[in-house]
Specification:
- 36% of the residues lie in helices and 19% in strands.
- It is an alpha/beta fold.
- The protein contains 13 helices and 14 strands.
- Helix 3 runs parallel beside helix 10 and helix 6 packs across helix 7.
- The protein folds into two domains: 197 residues, VC0802-like (2-Layer Sandwich); 204 residues, Vaccinia Virus protein VP39 (Rossmann fold).
- It is globular, with a radius of gyration of 25 Å.
- The strands form two sheets. The protein has a seven-stranded mixed beta sheet with strand order 2-3-1-4-7-6-5.
- It binds S-adenosylmethionine.
- S-adenosylmethionine binds next to loops.
């Protein structure tokens, strides 16, 4: 058993390592993303950071070790794939005992993170430990214990013994506790568990692009950052290639394609709202005491915000006129056979265009800013005649190479429904074969049996997760 003195020593050692890093303005971060997109995220972060060596692949995301806050903050504003950015407060090794766990959490000075008047929430994830028996198996209990440790630390910090409240829905601060087995197996003191204590700098998930209004769950929309990750995986070239979503639903991929092609930050709507209300905190980071007390951190954040504002205003003022953007829009096509879904897709795109102040092209042709959204059965769809021409016309000739994607229904319930879907998948594959020569076709499905109905040779399959549903992104090269 570790003596209290030795335990304090380990905590101090880990604390002082972090303090030293912080003095050099370097910190530790973890950027999470939908499972399966870790490598895509790593590549994206390296591009944002303009550094080929930054970041280490982790489970469910990328770790930034001894890293400038600039990279983490830029990722918060520019990553299309990231879900959240966490700052690591401590990383300690523990014996197999929940008492040490409580002490490790209490050892953090939580008053430097948030204030008594602010609310918090605790989330516990146990990586490989989840499959083991032992005291660290029950994450609900561990979250409760961590909450007690934080509350006790606050109570001891003021004479009246006042504590902050928990808000499970909209907390000012979310604390993440990540438990895992020690990489080396057993450490020098017999400890075997590694605990990372982190805080979420984002507040709401970065995938929320803020254009989704109202309830349209009937479409089963993809998460926005998953859709962006898929676009990266397709290697779609916005300057040359057509992008078609043949079952576009609420238009998630069309919007991601537009933001990517136009090189607009995915946090566009939130950024513009921040620009109008600079003093309202919109990311948790802006509420934290360590941030409010550090001129350096505030300057770094402001620089990143200003850079993003410049990017948006450049596009608003010049690029649309230069017609580059017009051509990018004209290469993006969405189809669906369901009117209700198409209405939602058009509404969503309209919100993005209006945010940018472009609404002149809307409605004349039933298109939004020339991004074509049309009613069409995917089983009889043919490629657009040429770049910019209306898709869904009747000629097969003149097909331009590009990407055709779809995320068909998965059908979980009825046999009859499954039979229908089998036929849908099969016929869709046949239509691709017949009409989409020179295209790269991608199908994202959560039903691993239905994919067999597509009688095409798969070039690759990536395992991705749409929420909790394990999916495959299947690629077919059509010749
Ligand atoms: C899972 S949803 C796609 C959701 C979409 N990716 C989004 O993020 O909103 C499947 C879509 O396929 C459409 N669909 C199903 N069969 C179709 C067909 N034969 N032709 C065109 N669209 C079809 C449905 O109307 C529905 O909108």
């Amino acid at each position: 058993m570790l003596s209290p003195g030795l335990f304090r020593f380990i905590m101090e050692k880990s604390g002082s390592k972090l303090q030293k890093l912080q003095k050099r303005n370097q910190r530790e971060y973890f950027i999470s993303c939908p499972r399966g997109l870790e490598e895509v995220l790593l590549k994206e972060i390296r591009k944002i950071a303009e550094d080929e060596h930054v970041g280490v692949l982790g489970q469910g995301g990328v770790a930034l070790k001894g890293c400038s806050p600039k990279i983490a903050y830029a990722t918060m504003l520019h990553s299309r794939v990231a879900s959240r950015v966490y700052e690591q407060l401590a990383k300690v090794t523990l014996l197999d005992s929940t008492q040490r766990y409580y002490q490790a959490i209490k050892a953090i000075d939580w008053t430097t993170i948030f204030s008594l008047q602010q609310t918090f929430k605790v989330q516990t994830i146990n990586g490989k430990l989840g499959t083991m028996n032992g005291p660290f198996r029950n994450t609900l209990y561990l979250s409760q214990l961590a909450k007690d440790a934080i509350v006790d630390r606050f109570r001891e910090s003021n004479r009246q013994g006042i504590r902050p409240n928990v808000d499970p829905h909209f907390p000012d601060c979310t604390v993440l506790l990540y438990l895992d087995l020690l990489d080396e197996g057993i450490g020098e003191n017999g400890d075997s568990v590694q605990l990372s204590i982190l805080v979420d700098l984002c507040g709401e998930a970065l995938g929320n692009r803020h254009y989704r209004k109202g309830d349209f769950d009937f479409v089963a929309p993809l998460r926005e950052n998953l859709a962006a990750g898929i676009l990266y995986l397709t290697e779609w070239d916005p300057k040359k290639e057509i992008f078609i979503d043949s079952m576009c639903g609420s238009g998630t991929t069309l919007i991601e394609a537009f933001l990517l092609g136009a090189q607009l930050p995915p946090s566009l709507i939130k950024l513009l709202s921040k620009q109008s209300n600079p003093h309202t905190p919109l990311w948790s980071l802006e509420k934290f005491n360590f941030f409010k007390r550090s001129g350096d951190l505030q300057n770094i954040w402001q620089e990143q915000l200003d850079r993003a504002y410049r990017q948006i205003s450049m596009l608003r003022e010049r690029d649309f006129e230069k017609r580059n953007l017009k051509y990018i829009c004209e290469r993006i096509y969405g189809f669906d056979h369901d009117e209700r879904s198409l209405m939602v897709a058009k509404k969503n795109l309209k919100i993005i265009f209006q945010t940018l102040g472009f609404d002149s092209d809307y409605s004349d042709h039933g298109d939004v800013g020339k991004i074509s959204i049309k009613k069409q059965d995917a089983l009889t769809l043919i490629p657009p005649l040429s770049t910019g021409a209306a898709a869904g016309a009747t000629s097969v000739s003149g097909a331009s190479a590009g990407v055709i994607f779809c995320n068909p229904p998965y059908g979980k319930r009825l046999d009859a429904e499954l039979q229908q879907l089998e036929s849908l998948y099969h016929e869709y594959g046949e239509n691709l074969k017949k009409n989409f020569k020179n295209y790269r076709a991608y199908v994202l499905t959560g039903n691993l049996d239905l994919r067999k109905a597509i009688a095409l040779k798969t070039t690759s399959r990536a395992v991705l997760y749409n929420g909790d549903i394990e999916c495959r992104l299947l690629r077919y090269d059509l010749y």
